[in-house]
Specification:
With 339 residues, the chain is α/β, with parallel strands linked by helices. It is built from twelve helices and seven strands. The strands form two sheets. It has a five-stranded parallel sheet with strand order 1-2-3-7-6, with helices on both faces. A two-stranded antiparallel ribbon has the order 4-5. It is globular.
Length: 339
């Protein structure tokens, strides 16, 4: 009986350096600037279909990803640009992806809501509410079976709290003691529906019902998120099972860029302005000083200018290859099936 051989696995790509306050501030500024650039390109028509802006929530992505190590994995949401960038995806390739160009992360086939980079452990953004949770649990279960010490993170919004797929994922993670951390980005609204009118109980109560340790943190404070994430990730990595973070945050822009045309009114200007006073960027800038923040701002501006040049210079996919990757190649029907 011969030993079973494993297919060699390529080492993970370098993740974003987020170990210092300066590096974390730079990433906050990169995500903010990227989203502002993306909004402009939506308005100009370069990005079709619109986007779900992450502006205001940057501290969650940066704080959580700062707690992750090489080989760890994450699943994202329809509002996922911040997660993808904070994990280390190159902004010029992500912008090209949003613009539907061949040099994008996924050759322009994923777009805003389905960007992925497996080399970085980014198992994909997802347009289905809560759908990343079972993928993250599966990845965590596989990691535990392999004994490789890696952790998976599932990002989702408060709108996913009543989705059965999330509750099933919490149950399986608890039963399997899977090394997974669930991160609820509670920005107060599921599209236009206030969470207070839709969620009975609480976010952390959902996790507590399955015996999963859960905490609520200030999602506008990068360092508070990082500290909570480090504790949950360490517990998961060392065999303590799953964890749950509710990050209280806020999106400064609408749910989707289409709101600008629809002129929806479900939040008061006073509410938005109050949350803007808690913007995570000034707090992070204060920790490194104005001079250093200004240097990093200039670096980011130059990087985003190059990202825009790269994305606009990239070609659109050839329509002749529209079906490529849509179906598996070399499929074999099972015995007795009609081919």
């Amino acid at each position: 009986m011969t030993a079973r051989t494993r297919t060699p696995v390529a080492p993970p790509a370098p993740i974003a350096p987020l170990g210092t306050p300066g590096q974390r501030y730079r990433m906050l500024r990169l995500i903010r600037g990227f989203e502002e650039l993306a909004l402009r390109l939506v308005k100009s028509g370069v990005i079709t279909g619109g986007i779900h802006p992450y502006i205001g929530q940057e501290a969650v992505a940066v704080g959580v990803c700062a707690a992750l190590g090489p080989g760890d994995r994450l699943t994202s949401t329809h509002r996922g640009h911040g997660h993808v960038l904070a994990r280390g995806a190159e902004p010029h390739r992500l912008l090209a992806e949003l613009a539907g160009r061949v040099d994008g992360l996924n050759q322009g086939r994923g777009g805003s809501m389905h960007a992925a980079d497996l080399s970085l452990g980014i198992l994909g953004a997802n347009g289905i509410v809560g759908a990343g949770a079972p993928i993250a649990v599966g990845a965590a279960w596989a990691a535990r079976q392999a004994g490789d010490g890696t952790v998976a993170v599932s990002f989702f919004g408060d709108g996913a709290l009543n989705q059965g797929v999330l509750l099933e994922s919490l149950n399986l993670a608890a039963m399997w003691r899977a090394p997974v951390v669930f991160v609820c980005e509670n920005n107060g609204y599921a599209t236009t529906l206030p969470a207070a009118t839709a969620v009975a109980g609480s976010a952390v109560g959902r996790a507590a019902a399955f015996g999963i340790p859960a905490v609520t943190v200030d999602g506008m404070d990068t360092e508070a998120v990082r500290a909570a994430a480090e504790e949950a990730v360490h517990r998961a990595r060392t065999g303590g099972g799953p964890g749950f973070l509710e990050c209280r945050t806020y999106r400064f822009e609408g749910h989707h860029t289409m709101e600008r045309r629809m002129k929806l009114h479900y939040r008061t200007a006073e509410e938005v302005d109050a949350w803007r006073t808690r913007d995570p960027l000034p707090r992070a800038a204060a920790a490194i000083g104005d001079a250093r923040a200004a240097e990093l701002d200039a670096e980011v501006a130059a990087e985003l200018a190059e990202a825009e040049r790269f994305a606009l210079a990239s070609e659109h996919p050839d329509p002749a290859g529209a079906l490529t990757y849509l179906y598996a190649d070399g499929r074999q029907p099972r015995a007795g099936a009609v081919g």
